[in-house]
Amino acid sequence: MAIFPLLQKLYSHLPGFSEKKRKNMNRRLAFHEWTKGFRRFFRRPFVFLFGSPFHSNLGDQAQTECIIAWIRKNLPRHEIFIASYMNTSPRLLKKIRKHIRKNDILLCHSGYHMTDLYDEQSHYLRIAQLFPDHPLTILPQTIHYQDNSHAQATADVLNAHPDCTLLCRDEYSYEVARGLFNKCRLFLYPDIEPPSLAISSCLNIRGRASSSA
């Protein structure tokens, strides 16, 4: 609602407001402004891209640019909402869950995220659990687990999603995925580059996933 940011600004200037309360109010206002695009009643469909890099690795940054270019070329009617690992909070996911629509698209950023060497995949798993009624596509991944229990826990979550597509960026990752994610739709596909026919096709497929090369 338009009244919310007005009240936020008004209250933040009232005497007696502590600096802590003022900062908290400013954070709430920034979140409100950041998410207002997909909360509008009359809006175009959105592509929600999760897991974009917040670090300075140029290869990861280049992947983001390629993904954005691909979306703009192939989905020109869609707007793009980008969330990094750092700002994909439970609050944000709850807000998207509340306002997501049938024509919106959920994408997870490409990279080396399907691993237990660090914890970036946890957001992808949370998204899979939170949106079981919405197709989920995970862009090209390197897949490697040191602990079999972590690998199986990941597989349990993704296999439970009725429409999950996972793209594997190399043959090793694809073979690992075939052993773990037997209920997901699998593609052997390198990092996104035009024309991304596999990605185009998997976004148009609905229903329970099945493995394919």
Write the layout of secondary structure elements.
Layout: H1 3-12, H2 19-39, E1 46-52, H3 58-74, E2 79-84, H4 90-99, E3 105-108, E4 111-115, H5 121-130, E5 136-144, H6 148-160, E6 164-168, H7 171-180, E7 185-188, H8 197-203
Parallel strand pairs: 1-2, 1-3, 3-5, 4-5, 5-6, 6-7
Helix pairs in contact: 1-2
Keywords:
about 210 residues; 8 helices; 7-stranded parallel beta sheet; disordered C terminus; about 45% helix; 7 strands; alpha/beta; globular
Would you write up a description of this structure?
- This protein has 213 residues and is an alpha/beta fold.
- 46% of the residues lie in helices and 19% in strands.
- The protein has helices at residues 3-12, 19-39, 58-74, 90-99, 121-130, 148-160, 171-180, 197-203, and strands spanning 46-52, 79-84, 105-108, 111-115, 136-144, 164-168, 185-188.
- Strands 1, 2, 3, 4, 5, 6 and 7 form a seven-stranded parallel beta sheet that branches.
- The chain starts with a helix and ends in a 10-residue tail after the last helix.
- It is built from eight helices and seven strands; from the N terminus they run ααβαβαββαβαβαβα.
- The protein is globular.
- α1 runs antiparallel to α2 (19-39).
Specify the helix fraction band. Answer: 40-55%
Number of helices: 8
State the separation between the terminal residues, measured CA to CA.
Answer: 47 Å
Largest sheet geometry: 7 strands, parallel
- Coarse structural class: alpha/beta
Low-confidence stretches: 205-213
